[in-house]
């Protein structure tokens, strides 16, 4: 039988159940993958509580990033063969597909070959993190090589924040990482952050001014939004770009119009699944860059913790806690 994790109601990780099902068969353009690992992502918290604009039909498959071995090809699939080791990139329709199961069906357009020097846990920690960071900083944020830019990365200890620090540093930027407290400062500096600022300090924006000699940052990469957006605008430099890729605050976001007018600020948002991972031409450029620097050691993958498949609830509870430093991985491979 095939064990599959499903969400039975929009009530968070406590509503996850592992069910016994038949092994599915891939349709046209799909593949059957024997799963090894899956990586968890913040947006799944919103989905699990029914707070995302698109709601899957219950009971719903969960998870949309992972890695495994192709077991069977559906009709119309080119470029892959049975036995290929693959990463599943999170560009699929999450209301139709999910990756946390012994055997799962996904579109072939959601597969890339697993880099040979990457282990199975790392293979589930690449594409949402590095893909989102690359899209947000380079394509949307205007990060350039050796352009003397200052980049502020908020919620920087997340599975997207760590790649963002590394991408910014490789481009020669000065990096300011923010976190609620300084508890994770050492880990953030190990990943390359030049400065770490605790946003629990009411005067944290003054620290940004001190670090930048009053100039402010050039690019902010932010998953928080809500009232935090106004604080970012206060700490920004003239002509800065604020790139949003999430809504962790779960609050309404008001446009800080006065700073926007006075500083000529630009605000933009990204959805990596559509804007990068779902765009073949743009993704190939990012893919070559990311794999090259993973394999030569310039980029490193940060794994927070691993959980067995039987502890899938606990893995998502860890994600919900916000205490993780890096990527949370579920080991799915059958014993």
From TrEMBL:
**Cross-referenced SUPFAM superfamilies, in alphabetical order?**
GroES-like, NAD(P)-binding Rossmann-fold domains
Decide whether keyword Hydrolase is in the record.
no
Enoyl reductase (ER) domain location is 12-330
Which keywords appear in this protein's UniProt record, sorted alphabetically? NADP, Oxidoreductase
SMART domains named in the record: PKS_ER
**Record protein name field:** Zinc-dependent alcohol dehydrogenase family protein
Which species expresses this protein natively? Croceivirga thetidis
């Amino acid at each position: 039988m095939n064990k599959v994790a499903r969400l039975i109601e929009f009530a968070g990780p406590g509503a996850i159940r592992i069910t016994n099902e038949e092994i599915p068969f891939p349709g046209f353009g799909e593949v059957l993958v024997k799963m090894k690992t899956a990586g968890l992502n913040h947006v799944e918290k919103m989905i699990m509580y029914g707070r995302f604009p698109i709601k899957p039909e219950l009971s719903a498959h969960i998870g949309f990033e992972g890695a495994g071995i192709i077991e069977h090809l559906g009709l119309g699939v080119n470029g892959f063969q049975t036995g290929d080791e693959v990463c599943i990139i999170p560009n699929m329709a999450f209301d139709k597909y999910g990756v946390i199961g012994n055997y799962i069906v996904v579109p072939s357009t959601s597969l890339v070959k697993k880099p040979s020097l990457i282990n199975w846990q790392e293979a589930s920690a690449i594409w949402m993190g590095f893909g989102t960071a690359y899209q947000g900083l380079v394509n949307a944020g205007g990060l350039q090589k050796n352009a003397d830019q200052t980049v502020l990365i908020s919620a920087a200890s997340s599975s997207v924040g760590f790649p963002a620090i590394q991408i910014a540093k490789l481009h020669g930027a000065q990096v300011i990482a923010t976190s609620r407290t300084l508890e994770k400062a050492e880990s953030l500096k190990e990943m390359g952050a030049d400065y770490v600022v605790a946003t629990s300090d009411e005067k944290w924006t003054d620290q940004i001014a001190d670090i930048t000699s009053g100039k402010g940052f050039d690019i902010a990469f932010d998953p928080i939004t809500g009232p935090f957006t106004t604080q970012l605008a206060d700490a920004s430099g003239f002509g800065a770009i604020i790139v949003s890729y999430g809504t962790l605050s779960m609050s309404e976001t008001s446009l800080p119009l006065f700073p926007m007018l006075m500083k000529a600020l630009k605000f933009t948002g990204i959805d990596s699944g559509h804007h990068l991972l779902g765009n073949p031409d743009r993704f190939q450029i990012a893919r070559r860059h990311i794999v090259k620097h993973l394999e030569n050691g310039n980029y490193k993958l940060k794994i927070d913790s691993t959980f067995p498949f039987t502890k899938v609830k606990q893995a998502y509870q860890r994600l919900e806690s916000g205490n993780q430093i890096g990527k949370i991985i579920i080991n799915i491979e059958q014993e």
